[in-house]
Amino acid sequence: MQKYLKELVEISGISGKEEKVMQFIKKNIQDKVDSVSVDNVGNLIAFKKGNDSSKKIMFAAHMDEVGLMVTKIYDDGTLGVAQVGGVDPRVLKAQRLKINDEIVAILNSTPIHLDHNLTAVTGYDSIKAYAGFKNKDEAKLKVKIGDMVTFDVKYYENNEYAVCKAFDDRCGCSAMMDLIDFFDSESKKPFYDTYFAFVVQEETGLRGSGVAGFSIQPDVAVILEGTTAGDNPELEKTSWATHLGDGAVLTFMHSGVVLDKRIFEYLVETSKKNNIKHQFKMRTAGGTDAARLTRTVDGIPCAVISTPCRYIHSANSIINKNDYNSVVELIKIISVEGRILK
Amino acid sequence: MKELIKNITEIYSPSGREDEVRNFIISQIKDYVDDYKIDKIGNLIAFKKGRSGKTILFDAHMDEIGLVITHITDKGFYKVEAVGGVDPQTLIGCRVQFKNRTGVLGVEGETMEDLKNNSKNLSFENLFLDLGFSCRTQAEEFAPIGTFGTYTACFADLGDRIVSKAMDDRVACAVLIESIRNMKDSLNNIIYAFTVQEEVGLVGSSVAGFNYDIDMAVAVDVTAAGDTPKALKRISMELGKGPCIKIKDAASVSDISVVNKLKQAAQANMIPFQFEVLLFGGTNAASYQRTKSGIPSGTISITTRYVHSPNEMVSMDDVKNTVKLVAALSNTEI
């Protein structure tokens, strides 16, 4: 387990620029599934035939991560940026970034010793990226408008925790890859025909999953996510969304949809029966591709299973690897026993 | 029909938990429709055959706004969040129910100043739910995280005016039930879509029409009233002036052909009506417009005071005329 997690989170791939993530996944799964294809918007869809072809299960995780994009090259060679997905400008100050996965840049605004207004938030209007260019002309040789900007961080782990960017949602991608490896190494087949959809552009508005769902038309979709923890020690427990170490997160409702009751209850019961550590998502804000997939074709019943991420949507989010393992254990059981569709 | 509205509004079925209201509706219509089915996400779709070869879909959503439990405290209190658009202001002083057990909500505040500020700025952050338990174990056993609740039912008959929770949109479900039972035969094929999860974002209606060829879709829903003291002065809907033919709200502009057909049907059958422009809000018509290659869509609204509160008020005259308008459109050539 977690064979691919480190590499996956270190790859740069904001919404719309998931190519490298896609290639990495494709390379590692194509010999282990019955077919792999890339659709018109860039979703990577792998298919594994089941013992029973009367029904279809779709697992889905999004390949994109939140990040920035170059919007302007100023005369002095500095760069204006905009967020791609939800990046609060407060997590950006003094961060080290990479433009197009190669040029190192830092992000700053007014020097801190001159910034006397301690309560004001520095917004994107006054944030600039410095990549060592002397002027506009020099910058234009290396950078153009629309270039991808991502956090420049390395994966670190100890026995229990891991730190990096992009656990949202490379955790989900990684879990699906682990599941594919499980079937491959045990020479097993899933119960029902199974589709693994690695989708694009979730962070900018659930864009890839809808078309993947349209072409697959599954009987059920299981969305694998990295989700908000919000369990910082300084916060009261009653405002936590999830808690690191408490297991796989099962969601009953989030922004835009109430998840299918029958499937939610099946997940709770299955986790209990198999002693898989699990918890409930304790806030309803925020959404996943489930909101889009439930509204796709004539309705796709959905479930959401997540790994909690503390400091999500920042350069350094933290997961508990045991939570991730619980997610993988649960989806193994789901796909082997097929009861999700009964 | 008052009895029907009382019964259907007293059912506890918030978004995503529509089983009970769906079963009730099936029991009311099954002997009067040609066929019905429940789709993959829980919409109830009923069919009545017509002669014209054209198909009209009428939609009413089955769900109501509600609350869901998100945390449990050591002392057996709960934190809750909204299912759909619940204004925290409506929760103070009213009763709610979770699994038929009565609950009340209180405001946090550790100093007088906190209490004053929290009461002024009510939010789910500073409210808690009390179901009368004294420890976490009891509370968790009865209602684990993810348990849904609603306002407590309290129907009142004021003559022409009636008051209840969940008029939005059970009054429209009642309208469709009544029109199904009254209508001997119909010119057009009719699909009645009793949809799920409107309140959390038009979920059911996004897929309810997908498997059918539909020539016209009409959502039946409630709309705000502008006839109370110092009400929003730019909206004109009034109780008792007939069903509203919606021109526009924040989510859709009604297809002009649907508006014209509704107007024609109302005039031909001497049914009073009013036009509606709502400055905010939206109905399931918005999602039928976006279904497949697009369905000409509109909305018939029932003017409702105090929408999204435990005490939504409608006029029985409007309700009965809405039943007539649904029947009239069913028998209008489109």
Outline the structure in words:
The complex is a heterodimer of chains A (342) and B (334). Chain A is of the alpha+beta class and 342 residues long. Chain A has 2 domains: 5-65 and 165-341, Aminopeptidase, CATH 3.40.630.10; 67-151, Elongation Factor Tu (Ef-tu), domain 3, CATH 2.40.30. Chain A has 8 helices and 19 strands. In chain A, helix 4 packs across helix 8. Chain A starts with a helix and ends in a 5-residue tail after the last helix. The mean pLDDT of chain A is 96. Chain B has 334 residues and is an alpha+beta fold. Chain B folds into 2 domains: 2-64 and 165-330, 3-Layer(aba) Sandwich (Aminopeptidase), CATH 3.40.630; 66-151, Peptidase M42, domain 2 (Elongation Factor Tu (Ef-tu), domain 3, Beta Barrel), CATH 2.40.30.40. Chain B contains 9 helices and 17 strands. In chain B, a hairpin with a 5-residue loop joins strand 4 (66-72) and strand 5 (78-83). In chain B, helix 1 packs across helix 5 (167-182). The longest helix of chain B is centred in the middle third of the chain and has 16 residues, at 167-182. Chain B is globular and about 65 Å long. The two termini of chain B are 29 Å apart. The relative contact order of chain B is 0.19. The mean pLDDT of chain B is 97. The chains are: A alpha+beta (342), B alpha+beta (334). Chains A and B meet through strand 16 of A and strand 4, strand 5 and helix 6 of B.
Number of domains of chain B: 2
State the low-pLDDT regions of chain B, or none: none
Most extensive interface: A-B, 28 and 29 residues
Succession of helices and strands of chain A: HHEEEEEEEEHEEEHEHEEEEHEHEEH
What is the rounded Rg of chain B?
Answer: 20 Å
Strand content of chain A: 25-35%
Strand tally of chain B: 17
- Sheet with the most strands of chain A? 8 strands, mixed
Cα distance spanning the termini of chain B: 29 Å
Mean pLDDT level of chain A: 96
User: What is the H level of CATH, i.e. the homologous superfamily of the largest domain in chain A?
Assistant: Zn peptidases
Strand line-up across the major sheet of chain A = 1-2-12-3-13-18-14-17
Treating each run of at least 4 consecutive H or I residues as one helix, how many helices of chain A? 8
CATH architecture classification name of the largest domain in chain A? 3-Layer(aba) Sandwich
